[in-house]
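Now for a chain:

_____
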Amino acid sequence: MCCEGAESTESTRKKIIAIDLFCGAGGLTRGLLDAGIEVKMGIDFDDSFRRSYEHNNKPAIFYRADVRTLNGNDLERNLDIKPTELFLMAACAPCQPFSRHINNHRYDRRKSLLLEVGRILTEFQRKPDFLLLENVPRIYKIDNGRILKKFLRLMANLGYNYKADVIDAKHYGVPQTRRRFIMLAVRKELYAGKVVFPDRIYGKGLLPYKTVRNAIAHLPRLRAGQRHKSVPNHECANMRDINRKRLSHVPKNGGSRTAWPKELILNCHVDHTGHKDVYGRMKWDAPSPTLTCRCTSISNGRFGHPIQLRAISLREAAFLQTFPEDYEFFGMFGNMAMQIGNAVPVRLAKILGEYLVNLPICRQPKFVLEGGQAWSAGNGIQIYPMKSEHRARSSGRSLQILFLGTVDCIR
């Protein structure tokens, strides 16, 4: 519930300024913009993402920086957030350090990136009103959960209510099975209620899941290695002759490499029953498997087109990530596949953003009046002692209030 006595207005709820740490090509930024949140900048170390990000997310700018070198005070000054504006910090640290495909015994210094987000939080003079985090589910298990537990303790100590759990994007209209760790956090003085995830929309007893057919069946046919002349990014990787033969033996609409004749089986797959998704085809009438940074290569997952003799194209991958059709990617082919596969699905980002936009919050944080003291009530309001009453001044206007001891909100 909102703070007692608070008023939540349309303009208050929707005036949210945001930054997007580890922004990549802008999937999260695009979803937040679509939700009505003003994203001022995306920050990432890889400058190859800049053109894709800025071309599709105006007026947001791309700022190249290593998050480990960022200072919260400097970042706050550059953002210049007004007292009447609410502030969201979104952070989707690169998933590779936390992925099950990485050797857990080899230390990857990027594993500390979540704690770097925490450090930046502590350096802000004005703490973000909202926090949105996304990562792979295995973040719970890295270093026996110590990194995540340390971060959650910090969130509690900084005064945030939060919800942190694993959700599947297919429940929110993404035509892809994509389980991800999500955290939504709100400062307690703005929202004293329980933070929850948006209700599922698709699934058992709800709307049917969006499928591969829904997402990509309308696109023109391609041959392996071909680029379409008029559909941006509708291009797919070429294949060696041996891989064409292999894919030709995979049954259409969901088949796997188990159908290969003996002479086509790779040595590494002899007497090995795992990894059946590699060289497989997607199913038309089901969500796609989870896309990765190599989602346009049949040797890296079930990324074969349901019926055509090729891997999915960049544009098909983008549609499976719910990027709009006018969202154009730039760079080398492999780099664009990484931009798409690593992104937060745009539709999921929009739904999470809309939850924060529509959350009923206090206009002002809580404060306590004590005789003889001047207290800040937040957003530029100061409380001054005046014998038997106190005066609250804001924006040149004054409001007479009785000495009540504790006041939840002034509006």
Summary: Confidence is low (pLDDT under 50) at residues 1-13, 97-107, 365-411. The CA atoms of residues 5 and 154 lie 29 Å apart. The longest strand covers residues 160-168.
